[in-house]
Each structure stands twice: as C-alpha cells, then as structure tokens.
Amino acid sequence: MANFDSKTTNMATRSILQLHLLASDEFEFFGSPAALYDKHTSEELLISQKSLNNYFSKCGDAPKVYRNAICEIRKGDLYTKAGNRGRKKEA
C-alpha cells in the first residue's frame, strides 16, 4: 500500500471506523467513535467508547484493530481528493 502525503498529492484524509459484526457477518462504517455508539451500545459491542478510544490511542504505528467475541473494529484512513466546494472565492 502506498503512503500518501496529503500536502504533496492534494489529498485529504479522514479517520474511519469499520465495524464487523461476527455473528451476522455484517460490515458497517462510521466517521467517528461517537457515530458508532449512536447506533450501537457498549453492551452490544462489549467495549465502551472510552475504552475503545484508549485502546486505539495506545496502538501507535501498529494496525488499529480491536477484536472480541462479538465484533471486530478497525480504524483507518479514508483518502479523499481535496476540493474547493463550500469555500468562498477570494476577490
């Protein structure tokens, strides 16, 4: 996988979470842990939002993957093309 430098390639990055529910083999994608916990409870996922945030912050450069008996949660980057939509033109 290529390493992207958003400053030189005119790309923006956003953090994304992938939730894999193991029992049903379903995948869901979220833009933040808060969005994940708006749809699912900590009892459903067997981990609280605070614990998940703490787990990912301690991963460092290692792949950010949390797994238990119920689910697998991956944190990664979504690369998008930087655009000018919504920005005011300078006169």
Key features of this structure:
4-stranded antiparallel sheet; 34% strand; 91 residues; alpha+beta
Architecture overview:
This protein is of the alpha+beta class and 91 residues long. It has one domain (13-81). It contains 3 helices and 4 strands, in the order E-E-H-H-H-E-E. The protein has helices at 33-39, 42-45, 49-57; strands at 11-21, 26-30, 64-67, 71-81. A 4-stranded antiparallel sheet has the order 2-1-4-3. The radius of gyration is 16 Å and the shape is elongated. The termini are far apart. The model has no long low-confidence stretch (mean pLDDT 87).
The residue fraction in helices comes out at 10-25%
Structural domain tally: 1
Distance between the termini: 41 Å
Which ranges are low-confidence, i.e. pLDDT below 50, for 5 or more consecutive residues? none
Calculate Rg over CA atoms: 16 Å
Global shape: elongated
- SSE order, one letter for each helix or strand: EEHHHEE
- Structural class by helix and strand composition: alpha+beta
